[in-house]
Amino acid sequence: MRWSDGRRSDNVEDRRGMTMGRKVVGGGIGTIILALVAMYFGIDPSVVLQQGGSPLTAPTETRQAGKPPANDELAQFVSVVLADTEDTWHELFRKNGKTYQEPKLVLFTGAVESACGYAQAAMGPFYCPMDQKVYIDLGFYRDLKDRFQAPGDFAQAYVIAHEVGHHVQSLLGISEKIHDLQQRSGKAEANQLSVRLELQADCLAGIWAHHANRTRQILEAGDVEEALQAATSIGDDRLQQQAQGYVVPESFTHGSSEQRVRWFRSGLESGSFGSCNTFGGGTL
Questions:
Q1: Where is the chain membrane-spanning (predicted)?
Q2: Distance CA 244, CA 13 (A)
Q3: What is the per-residue burial (b if ≥16 Cβ within 10 Å, else e) of 46-65?
Q4: Which pLDDT tens digit goes with each residue over 165-189?
């Protein structure tokens, strides 16, 4: 991926290595675990936290975040990818008569406090609609390469573009509508809605890649294959097979490997919002 000469975003908050204080939050440890699981599966964790019981203490940052150092190549890469999503979505929103509001991206190590609650790095990258921020521990990229066998800088860019896709859904009011439906649905239907939301974010990541490459020629040989391998590696069926030795499609929340690849490719090839209607009914 051609990125070294790209613009750096001003919206990166570097909280890595920050000291953590303590503050009281609602809910017992079971509630926090449920909230983390909800966050991973695309459900607003604040819904879980608001239903918690007895209070407990949880870490919270105690000093102001800074900017990534210039000699930190991976952090600079993240900043360039974020800037590229900003440029792309500003233009696409403008063409549709809307104004794009840029999200912040927070780099952290180990654990972080967001407006959606306390989260650990093990949960992976996530987007919090309550503060419009993407959160990522850069150690996830090591896992992406070693644990999920999905190396490459464009695979890393796909991860960021997917989370920014959730931000786009939030700005368009899609996420709120789906979360409202989930609260009124049974478990199976709520899972299906989550799958459709996640697959749409994959498709939106593909739209970003389509337009970024058309205007700035960011792709090199093998880049698309890197992103497709990343999408394949984090499909629900593959993750379930690795974790428990069998697959339960009814419990999917992000989509199968085949679905994630297909919807990312749909956005990549068309560059059109119309290609990302995962809520149009029928099979995914």
A1: 24-43
A2: 36
A3: bebbeebeeeeebbebeeee
A4: 999 999 999 999 999 999 998 888 8
Backbone angles phi, psi at 254, to 5 degrees: -115, -20
Q: Which tokens in the block code for residue 159?
A: 């991860």
Q: Does residue 151 sit in helix, strand or coil?
A: coil
Q: At what angle do helices 174-183 and 187-216 cross, to 10 degrees?
A: 170
Tokens linked to 23: 């503050």
pLDDT in tens, 213-246: 998 898 888 888 887 787 777 676 666 776 777 6
State both tokens at 151.
Answer: 């190396």
For the chain, which ranges sit under pLDDT 50?
Answer: 21-58, 60-63
C-alpha torsion angle, residues 80, 81, 87, 89 (rounded to 10): -160
107: enclosing H helix or E strand: strand 104-107
Q: 213 CB contacts (<8 Å, ≥6 apart)? A: 219
pTM given for the model: 0.81
Contact 163, 78 (CB under 8 A): no
Please, which residues have CB within 8 angstroms of residue 164's CB and are 6 or more apart in sequence? Answer: 82, 85, 89, 103, 127, 134, 204, 205, 208
Domain boundaries, the chain: 12-276
Question: 81, 160 in Cβ contact below 8 A?
Answer: yes
Q: What is the dihedral of CA 110, 111, 112, 115, to 10 degrees?
A: 140
Quickly tell me which residue has 């709120």 as its tokens.
Answer: 176
